[in-house]
Design a protein that fits this description.
This protein is mostly beta strands. The chain has a single domain (47-190), classed as Jelly Rolls (Sandwich), CATH 2.60.120.10. It has two helices and 14 strands, in the order E-E-E-E-H-E-E-E-E-E-E-E-E-E-E-H. It has helices at residues 36-41, 179-190, and strands at residues 6-9, 16-19, 22-24, 29-31, 50-57, 60-67, 74-80, 82-89, 100-106, 112-115, 119-125, 129-136, 145-147, 168-169. Strands 1-2-10-7-12-5 form a six-stranded antiparallel beta sheet, with no helix packed on it.
């Protein structure tokens, strides 16, 4: 059975979950992972300039990353395994500033997360291994990345982490300023 592309609103302006078109026959399943014309028909108009792929093991929590001067929009999907993907609105002039949205992305559900510029992004690996692909709207500038602690008390992100379990966090992700202190850096970005 064929499935057409569909877009789910998240309640945060510009942030969407994309259910890509797929075509199934007796032998194959083909998923149309990217079609700029179809996205444009749905007013999703970011231009992507680079694609990255990462592999992480169960319990890894990456992020929350945001770029200060060269913000990146993203289209995130999982080609192997399962993650819980989170975006936080860090656009200081947005009515949903500080709001977050999380979605389970997996190789099975084929969902994608469309995250515009101005959002912090992170994910938690649920499966034994997860391979994540993400298209980005600007090139990576390593010295431009700042972040928010994954467990920031102001954001209250509801990660699917079991009680008494500690996620695996990269050293760089352990030393971010709180969300409330991040605003000054973000305002400079938008001036």
């Amino acid at each position: 059975m064929d499935q057409h592309l569909s877009i789910e609103k998240t309640g945060i302006q510009g942030l969407y979950v994309v259910n890509p078109a797929s075509y199934k026959s007796d032998e194959d399943l083909i998923v149309e992972t990217y079609n700029s014309q179809e996205l444009l028909k749905n007013s999703l108009n970011m231009t992507f300039v680079q694609e990255n792929q990462s592999m992480s093991v169960k319990g890894v929590l990456r992020g929350l990353h945001v770029q200060k001067n060269f913000p990146q929009g993203k289209l995130v999907r999982v080609v192997r395994g399962k993650i819980y993907d989170v975006a936080v609105d860090t656009r200081t002039t947005s009515s949903t500033y500080g709001d977050w949205y999380g979605v389970e992305l997996s190789a099975d559900n084929k969902k994608q997360f469309y995250i515009p510029e101005g959002f912090a992004h992170g994910f938690y690996v649920i499966s034994d291994i997860a391979e994540v692909c993400f298209k980005v709207s600007d090139y990576w500038h390593p010295n431009d990345e700042i972040g928010i602690p994954w467990n920031d008390p102001e954001l209250k992100i509801n990660w699917p982490i079991k009680e008494n379990e500690m996620p695996i966090i990269a050293d760089k992700d352990l030393h971010y300023d709180s969300f409330s202190l991040l605003k000054e850096k973000l305002v400079q970005r938008e001036e």
